[in-house]
Amino acid sequence: MKVTMQQIADLCNVSRGTVDRVLHNRPNVHPKIRQNVLHVIEQTGYRMPALTGAQPRRLVAILPGWSEKYFVTRSRRGIQTAIDRLESARFTLQVEQLDGCSREELLAALDRALDEGVKGILLNAPMDHAVIERVNRATARGVRVVTYFDELPQCPDTYYVGPDVVRAGRVAAGLMAKYLRLGERVLAVTGDLRFHSHRGRVYSFAHHLQELTGQSGLVEIVCAQETFEATAQIVQQQLVRDERVRYIYMATQSVPGCMEGIRRAKLPYRVTVICNDTTTAARELLESGAIDFVIGQSASQVACQAVETLYKMVCLDAVPRTHKLYSELTIYTKQMLHAKGGER
What we know:
Order of helices and strands: HHHEHEHEHEEHEHEHEHEHEHEEH
Strand content: 15-25%
CATH class of the largest domain: Alpha Beta
Shape: elongated
Distance between the termini: 44 Å
Number of helices: 13
Structural class: alpha/beta
CATH superfamily of the largest domain: Response regulator
Helix content: 40-55%
CATH architecture of the largest domain: 3-Layer(aba) Sandwich
């Protein structure tokens, strides 16, 4: 019976990617693991399949220069995990890290990818007319495109991996409704509304809170620039301007900036805060009791699943049954944080 690479990986308790690196004498394999894999290969008589002459499929992951570095480090971790799991001889994946989140930088990266003839693109992008045009041009050429953390509804041939942001907003509203008292209001802080994640969270939050309470005009939606100082200033201004605001839904970053805005407002009462994403700062603030709930998901698992989905589409011609592959959402409290093991 012919021995497969997957059987070698199973016998060695490693990924197929590790076996592939040993077979091709690539680095980043522990010496003991390499020795064990070589031993099992010798014992089983495994032989590498003959090369067909086909060139590896080229993929590119375009990572924004998020101000919250948590998303950069977790995305890279997830991408590397996926590469380690997969049979690397079938594809190459280039990670292009952008300096910021500007439209011009993203468009330039997309143009380079198309000019270089890549077969698959992984990206996070706003619902911007020029970006949508580029992505639709790519899919029309047969390039597979997977978005993660943010959908592009105007690009029907793309696939999305990440949280259901509308559900996340509704969950936050369900939590907030249990605390809200007559006459009190909520401040919802979001980022660039060209991003589907920002728009979907705050609008679904406001709509569902009205459904649950039967009251309109409860939510004040403000846009911050996802920087510490801009967020601190806008939160402080809103709290000072309207003393009825006793709750904040932080649907974007920076959560530390939000807490600084509350501190600067010098209120004689406590403000209840719900935020998204288990960033390092959010975990610390949750543990200290400064914020009350975090609605999060594993960013590294999302990135890993996104790469695996793109790989299967490009290299195995395995297209998902649905265009939206939602990740699991978890509600964290101070007491539940360690029990659930939120991503660090």
